[in-house]
């Protein structure tokens, strides 16, 4: 067996030698290949590492044990990790891609005996590599639902990926969820440790260490989540301008009475033909879509009734406009986004107050079109929503000054798609990334987390407009909102 000297100068053939040696130590399966990709922040730099795609638990164990003998790092890997995504690897890292696991069953309803409990807890066991779409379809088929729903809008990622990165959910505190992310609903987790052994954790304190650890403590094989019987929800859409939302606090009652509250903002939608973006656009006059859901009480299973599933696109693929036109001609962005908003508003108005199965109601918005760049951060607010309202006033003023760009001749076209705001429950066990506490002595149930996502369409490759926009937003966020934090990009669940 060859000896690996990590202090040796860079050798372009080293990664190939490592792949051959690792394959010898693993055996026939799984196959080891050289995985090449580039990161958005390192244009032109190609990063290489080792990757395997195991199809069973035994193949994961063999890979971990073989990598340990070569002193290689091991990372879990999920859907859509590569290309322009950020993953924590170097040439001495082995990525274990669990998306092709073929062990059966992929999902099942089980009774889980948790460490320290004297009774069994019903749970939904999910195999690593199961996508969110698979989970939604399984729950509707089995007539069950989770207490917290993962965010479907990014359109990528797996259930386990949401858990190990503590990606924010969509349910508010009135839904019965224990916290603001799917990781809060885990009652058991099975992990392949550094020795290649499968270890199960069900103690709440140990689970807190393995959830939201970026997969650094082992390769997660499956997880078990709390569930309850399937319900239906009424989906409501309202349209209010920022001025009314911020001054009359008209959305406060949604947090007290709704399971989900979301704001969807497509900028420039109040501008009329012939009006100037620099001189006539005032963001306070733009309309905002308020999406909320409320569960219906169901006594018997046969009373469950549901309209056909809704699946709305921010940019309608039939009615248009063409998303390539928005990305390629930024000077026409304000008028095109105005058309996008009118089409979307008509579609949502026609489906207002209809009943959906609750898992469908949580995920009725389709993923963003591609290619798109996303930037997400979170801030903590309280039940009165004052910190959030103060932040949005400051942000809209900053956005107006940035877009008008009066110091230069050209208008700055930074955001050309939408801004979303989701509200979830408080920061349970500090799992939500980087979210501080306004008042540590306050009851967690009285706090809210606002998750703000910026999305812009770009042309393939590096986008100077998006780079400048994200830099300004990041500086503004860290400078004005000290308790806010950008959400991390990870190898399991990434934001584009």
Automatic annotation (TrEMBL):
Domain FAD-binding PCMH-type, residue spans: 39-230
Alphabetized PANTHER family for the sequence: D-ARABINONO-1,4-LACTONE OXIDASE, L-GULONOLACTONE OXIDASE
Database matches in PROSITE patterns: FAD_PCMH
Entry's Gene Ontology molecular function annotations: FAD binding; oxidoreductase activity, acting on the CH-OH group of donors, oxygen as acceptor
The protein's name: FAD-binding PCMH-type domain-containing protein
SUPFAM superfamilies: FAD-binding/transporter-associated domain-like
Domain of life: Eukaryota
